[in-house]
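Exercise: predict the fold of this chain.
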Amino acid sequence: MGARIEHEATRVDRSPSGLAIRHLVTGEVGSTDLYTGEQWLERGEQVLLHTHPVEEVLIFTDGSGEATLDGNIVPVAGGVTLHIPAGEVHGFRNTGDGRLHVFVIFPGNTFARTDMIEDGSG
């Protein structure tokens, strides 16, 4: 059976970069092959450089910033989606004046294993 998830009623956790994240679609709600989380970054906050052993999709819904994809800097904002292949070094930061809002999607039913990169800048 499907599940209805109220974002505001879902517990806020911490991502590997130490920022707030909500785990929305997980094994806890019955998912077997999909993870979805919601994250928001305040002005100046960043998700540090890291990799995952699986591909990832980031869907930006509000705000503006920049992402690092395999050493290249690309702009992100509401209405932009990034596909990140497994093993690619990536991170992102809020460079705008407001909140940067993003949804995170992984295959599998949990937040993917994260390997932080020593340099850590996003």
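Check your answer against the key: The chain has a mean pLDDT of 95.
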